Amino acid sequence: MTAIVKAYGVHKHFGHLHVLKGVDLEVAERELVFVIGPSGSGKSTLLRCLNRLEQPSSGSIEVAGIDMLSPKTDINHARQHIGMVFQSFNLYPHMTALGNVMLALRKVAGKGKAEAETLAQAALDRVGLADRAHHRPAELSGGQQQRVAIARSIALEPRVMLFDEPTSALDPELVGSVLAVMRDLRESGMTMIVVSHEMGFAKNAADRVIFMDDGLIVEQGPPAAIFDTPAHERTRAFIGQIQQH
Q1: pTM value surpassing 0.90
Q2: Do residues 143 and 175 lie in contact, with contact meaning Cβ atoms separated by under 8 Å?
Q3: What is the pLDDT of residue 245?
């Protein structure tokens, strides 16, 4: 399998804080990788380094054949290939769902109005919101807003999608609709790296689970291995803790 994401020796310092301590990560095309670990273990920082929202202190990162750390790389162009969905939906409140998705297509991808509208409508359709295209964020539930945010990313046809705690701000009954969209994306062949506490989803959908602690990848493997027979003491303690909740 060809790796579409290659990160080697990634370190990140925030002042005296050493958050990533030499992370190596390869993700194959069409793979769904789940990153778990305690708060402060560096999971979100790793995602943000992959699309250069954070500048790594050292190391190398290549996504879809683009050297993300090269000064020659046009980072806005590169980010078209790497969709990112955050915990907060970051939608423009004064624009409709359709308007929010169109804006990305026009500003980032330089599409004309008619084409942007067609593509935006298709993206909303994919996340099950075709009938909500003309609603503003305030008229949508949290789960629907998060699905608009996903539509905004997939409209740009990225090669890789990064999800940073995509369901943690949602009421429990709305989580399922977002996970269903992520499951559909996976079935359509999207490469995905997901930081999340949705362990049931990880067990059912992930190809590989990575356990991070203290800025390092401690252990990784198929979901069954990580959840049922973790090899490392730190992984066992973490899994034991979540299973009690």
Answers
A1: yes
A2: yes
A3: 63
